[in-house]
Amino acid sequence: VQVVESGGGLVQPGGSLRLSCAASGFAFSSTTMSWVRQAPGKGLKWVAGSESDDGHSTSYADSVKGRFIISRVNANNTLYLHMNSLKPEDTAVYYCALGDVDEFDVWGQGTQVTVSS
Q: Shortest CA distance to 13 belongs to which of 94, 109, 111, 91?
């Protein structure tokens, strides 16, 4: 299993970012995928999930609902997280994970998102 996250950076409050996760080494198209994040000094928290049905079934943590959109392109083995209306409390390392809100596995190095003016 290999996943490589990218797209993080420094953004002002209210701004947007798109994270990408390039996956390989497993059956991506038949795997439920999620984004999880780890804020400074905190544990991993599930953010959003996408089932294997070409991304039609998605779910979100209450803290990001209405602001973040998870999507996937199974043909390219790629998972995305579109983040809008970013807040300082969204600052974290974001990871692409295999699994859903109840059980997930993190394999990548993550990408840092910092929301600050």
A: 91
